Amino acid sequence: GAVVSQHPSWVICKSGTSVKIECRSLDFQATTMFWYRQFPKQSLMLMATSNEGSKATYEQGVEKDKFLINHASLTLSTLTVTSAHPEDSSFYICSAPRNHQETQYFGPGTRLLVL
Amino acid sequence: QKEVEQNSGPLSVPEGAIASLNCTYSDRVSQSFFWYRQYSGKSPELIMSIYSNGDKEDGRFTAQLNKASQYVSLLIRDSQPSDSATYLCAVTQAAGNKLTFGGGTRVLVKP
Fold it and tell me: Which residue of chain A comes nearest to B32, CA vs CA?
């Protein structure tokens, strides 16, 4: 069964609003989670690494003030897209390594459409 | 040069044939290698992981790793229409570290 969940699975919002996406590890603790973005017909691009108890690490070119990440607990990380614009419309996916293993498990993804 | 490279495809194979997918990576310190399958509109799901040189088999899938050549491949035997998807090669330097993905190879299995 699924080991990482995301909520919501779909969100449609107006330009200028903020959207929060949750990523949960279901039966294990994750001190680290990863947030990816995928545009149509492209591969996954890592946005940031979410660290429990400390600040997130953002990849080059990703605006940390626009994509706010909070790793609130050992099973929950949230990504907030602030002042969303149509170009932020994408498929957002989180992942978490299980018990410090190499294997990462992906959430089902959140599809964001900004009108 | 991209860190992880794959042929974008599409790779078209008849049902029952072997699909062969290739992936090269540039970072020699890479330690762990993964193949993910992604259906359209879905998130990636893990197919295989491989950490040491040689072959690793799991059902109809075989992963091959050659660290000297910085090359990892995936063979899909007895291909089925349900194998039609995009296959992503991913590399990481250490346990729990971030994955670097290739662009993916689209596979089409024709009945």
Answer: A102
Please classify residue A65 by burial: count the beta carbons closer than 10 Å to its beta carbon, then call 0-12 exposed, 13-18 middle and 19+ buried.
Answer: exposed
**CA-angle at A25, arms to A23 and A27, nearest 5°:** 160
More confident residue, B54 or A100: B54
Nearest to A44 among B41, B94, B101 (CB): B101
Residues B89 and B24: their CA atoms lie apart, in Å, by 9
Identify the residue among B65, B87, B89, B98 best suited for mutation to test binding to A, counting A beta carbons within 10 A and taking the highest.
B98
CB contact under 8 A, B49 and A34: no
What pLDDT, in 10s, does the model give residues B26-76? 988 888 899 999 999 999 999 999 999 999 999 999 999 999 999 999 999
Mean pLDDT score, A63-82: 94
